[in-house]
Amino acid sequence: MNLELFILGCGGMMPLPGRYLTSVLLRRDGDLFLFDCGEATQISLKKLNIKWKKISVILISHMHADHVTGLPGILMLSSQVERDDPLYIIGPPRLGEYIEENRRILDMYINYKIEVIEVNQPGTVFKGDGYYIDAFPLNHTKPCLGYSFIEEKRSGVFYPDKALELNIPKGNLWSKLQKGDSVELEDGKIITPDMVTGEKRSGRKFSFVTDTAFSSNIVPNIKDSDILICEGMFTEELAESAAAKKHLTAKQAAEIALLAGGIGDLGLIHYSPRYNDRELAKLLEEAKALFPNTFLTRDRQAINIKNKD
Fold first, then answer.
1. DSSP of 68-107, one letter per residue?
2. Which residues are known to be catalytic?
3. Separation of alpha carbons 209 and 15, rounded Å
4. DSSP state of 59
5. Is the backbone of residue 270 left (phi > 0), alpha (psi -120 to 50) or beta?
6. DSSP helix/strand/coil, 228
7. How far apart are CA 21 and CA 15, in angstroms?
8. What is d(CA 23, CA 25) in angstroms, rounded to the nearest whole number?
9. Residue 238 main-chain phi, psi, to 5 deg
10. CA angle 167, 168, 172 (to 5 degrees)
11. pTM of the model
């Protein structure tokens, strides 16, 4: 099953040419999950030729304009096609009010069901087939949430020799066992997956953290993420300003990744507009000094998240 990440916008505070406001899309086969929805999100979706109508869940970190101004456009865009499934929008308190007021004032035509889930405590906020999404609090000037998308454990490695020993014919039954389903043989014997497979393997994990002061609370929630997309807004030269505004420096993002353990790669996002593209290299340098597997996210960057084994 494919798990792909698309950076729709990597900027913070204000959109710039080639640097739209923060938004990230996760695609798991046919399901799409949008994390934040900054201005110009629609443009990146169009440029990437992603079938936006299949977005099933939108997760908003907090109610600041640079993270939600693209949401009304996405809602109106989704009404251009027939849609049977509801659109789930998850985020902090007052998210529902924001959506309803936009619908009322803009007289939006919405031809599908919108399910708003306002998060008041940490924990699992959404479950799907083979995955779940956890939310956890961040420390910002408004209620703010980080998210982790976590796949459930996969079936263990399939051993054909064990299947043959049990007289299980090749074909459909083997396929079902590899998917974790039990099967019944012609003689009525029930074969369970554990009889022909090894121990279950971990699924993949993606975490999204933006707009927060340094907080040890983040660490256990992002542990073992295959990829962490995390705000790295300022260089250490502006550490005091970052703390006052409750934002992270690139170095602090790297420190969080290091403390968490098990992080595969760290992608910095939500850059301050004070840095031009050339100056972003300083953010990367400071982060890599602590966490070498760090990279700068760029608009419309695509990342394939592979299984560990």
1. HTTHHHHHHHGGGS---SPEEEEESTTHHHHHHHHHHHTT
2. 66
3. 19
4. E
5. left
6. strand
7. 5
8. 7
9. -110, 30
10. 160
11. 0.89
H or E element, residue 67: helix 65-68
**Spatial distance between the Cα atoms of 254 and 203, rounded to a whole number of angstroms:** 23
Tokens encoding 187: 């003689």
Query: Rounded to whole angstroms, how far apart are CA atoms 309 and 200?
Result: 11
Give the DSSP H or E segment for 192. Answer: none
Q: List the one residue out of 6, 92, 16 whose CA is nearest residue 52.
A: 6
| Tokens coding 20 | 């739209």
**Amino acid identity for residue 116 in this structure:** V
Q: Do residues 148 and 133 lie in contact, with contact meaning Cβ atoms separated by under 8 Å? A: yes
Beta carbons of 267 and 244 less than 8 angstroms apart: no
Cα 187 off chain centre by: 46
Name, in order, each residue with C-beta under 8 angstroms of 48's C-beta and a sequence gap of 6 or more: 6, 8, 300, 302
CB 21 within 8 A of CB 270: no
pLDDT tens by residue, 151-208: 998 777 777 888 888 888 888 888 888 877 888 888 888 988 888 887 777 899 999 9
